[in-house]
Amino acid sequence: MVDTGDMSDEFSFGEPAKHPARLGKPLWPPAREPARARTGSSHAAKLMWMVAGLVVAGALAFVFLRGADEAGKSLRVPGTNPFFPMLHDLQGNRFLELLEEHPLEVYLMNTGRVGGPEEDERSKKVRIKHSSAVVKGIAEGTIAWEPDPDFGYQVAASVPGIDDEEVLQPCKLYERTGRTDEYRAQVERLKAERAEFLGEFPSLSAEIVAAVS
Questions:
Q1: Phi-psi region of 141 (alpha: psi -120 to 50; beta: other; left: phi over 0)
Q2: Checking phi first, is residue 24 left (phi over 0); if not, alpha (psi -120 to 50) or beta?
Q3: Alpha-carbon distance 9 to 20, whole Å?
Q4: 27 in a domain, yes or no?
Q5: Distance CA 91, CA 101 (A)
Q6: Running along the chain, 213 residues long, what does each successive block of 10 average in pLDDT?
Q7: What is the Cα–Cα distance from 212 to 198, expressed in whole angstroms?
Q8: Angle in degrees, CA 157, 160, 165, rounded to 5
Q9: Please, what is the Cα angle at 182 between 181 and 184, to 5 degrees?
């Protein structure tokens, strides 16, 4: 048996320990040292993260503060890159070059409503379950796509988890509710407005302008 009655929390090899061992103190994880400033950090890296943070913060502020006010309006803002300080049309041309050199799939998903504003009982709300099903379908490659006859890009024909095709293709909602002429008028208006907007960028590739005209 070991008699611990006279034991203390100090140990000695000829002289008292300068730092007494505390009984019961965990050995792991080791105590962290106070945070110290990194003198070798890159100023450019700090600036990059600062700019990126401002861009994200600005986007979130716009969505949350102005989202309701902008509902139902066409918002057209050039997708500027803070690390590409050139004219907007040159950025668009460069993005087209990147897509041609490195083909990739680009998706556009919107939320809100289809078929009219909230006060229109014929409209339908795009719910969280719809958005979640679309994201899941994109990740798993389970969405069936077909070309849109008016705009040319691919639209979802069917998505696992979404039984209402009118949410995926609003034109069918307008057809069922007898508003085909209203839908056609909106298509022509959007095409004209997009072409007019892109006309503000004289150096923009004609291929890009033709894609939305």
A1: left
A2: left
A3: 6
A4: no
A5: 15
A6: 43 42 45 48 56 52 52 64 79 88 86 90 94 94 94 93 94 96 95 90 90 80
A7: 9
A8: 40
A9: 65
- Domain count within the chain: 1
Task: Give the CATH number, domain containing residue 97.
Answer: 3.90.228.20
- As a residue count, the chain comes to 213
How far is Cα 76 from Cα 71, in angstroms, rounded to an integer? 13
Characterize the bridge pairing of strands 154-158 and 144-147. Answer: antiparallel
Range of the domain at 202: 84-211
> How many angstroms separate the CA atoms of 22 and 10, rounded?
8
Please give the structure tokens belonging to residue 156. Answer: 């979802």
Is residue 124 included in any domain, yes or no? yes
Nearest to 83 by CA among 48, 45, 46: 48
Tokens standing for 3?
A: 């008699």
Find the angle CA(175)-CA(180)-CA(181) to the nearest 5 degrees.
Answer: 170
Q: Note whether residue 109 is domain-resident.
A: yes
Q: How far apart are CA 125 and CA 167, in angstroms?
A: 8
pLDDT at residue number 169: 93
Is there a domain that residue 181 lies in? yes
Place of tokens 């040159």: 90
In degrees rounded to 5, what are phi and psi of residue 114? Answer: -125, 145
